[in-house]
Specification:
Layout (H helix, E strand, L loop, with lengths): L4 H7 L7 H11 L9 H12 L2 H4 L2 H12 L15 H24 L9 H6 L1 H8 L5 H8 L9 H11 L9
């Protein structure tokens, strides 16, 4: 997967100074103008407004960013806690960028594209993983630590928790 990180960063206006751009983007994501974004509206906005196929195809990253962003603040509306409001939108864009980076790393490690990382895949890609997080002394023990549910594979959510704890940073992004 070849990713144009500069394009993604440019299309996700998350700097404080980008508030006007965020307002415009939020408005484009919110076709009914109710001030709330559902997951479906976010996915449609990523597909139709941002038009970045790699990002749209990264459903686990979108879902994770949506879930974390919608809970950032307590809504004043009775329906708002299940949706993203504008005051949460900046955090959503930041989270989407970060979780997309984790998704890219996860996908590069998941050699057979089954959305799970086996111990063999983890060990086969250990050089790559170490470039992102630093030296891993015992890959099997690290794998078992990441596999928090003990299922014998690393799922995306488990990978994200570990990536956050390790400050994972892939080598070809723009940060």
């Amino acid at each position: 997967m070849s990713i144009d990180w500069a394009e993604i960063t440019a299309k996700l206006p998350s700097d404080r100074a980008d508030k006007d751009k965020r307002k415009e983007l939020f408005s484009q994501f919110d076709p009914n103008g109710n001030g709330f974004l559902s997951l479906a509206e976010v996915e449609k906005g990523i597909r139709d407004v941002l038009q970045i196929d790699e990002l749209f195809d990264a459903k686990p990253a979108i879902i994770r960013a949506f879930q974390i962003a919608k809970d950032v603040t307590k809504s004043k509306s009775s329906v708002g806690d299940d949706y993203i409001e504008f005051r949460e939108f900046r955090f959503f864009l930041q989270s989407l960028r970060q979780y997309f980076e984790y998704y890219a790393a996860f996908s590069r490690t998941d050699s057979d594209n089954d959305r799970r990382i086996s111990l063999d895949e983890f060990q086969e890609n250990i050089d790559k993983v170490e470039r992102w997080v630093g030296k891993i002394d015992d890959p099997e023990a690290e794998f078992n630590q990441i596999d928090t549910n003990g299922g014998g594979v690393i799922l995306f959510d488990e990978f994200c928790s570990w990536a956050i704890s390790k400050s994972l940073d892939i080598e070809d992004d723009d940060d």
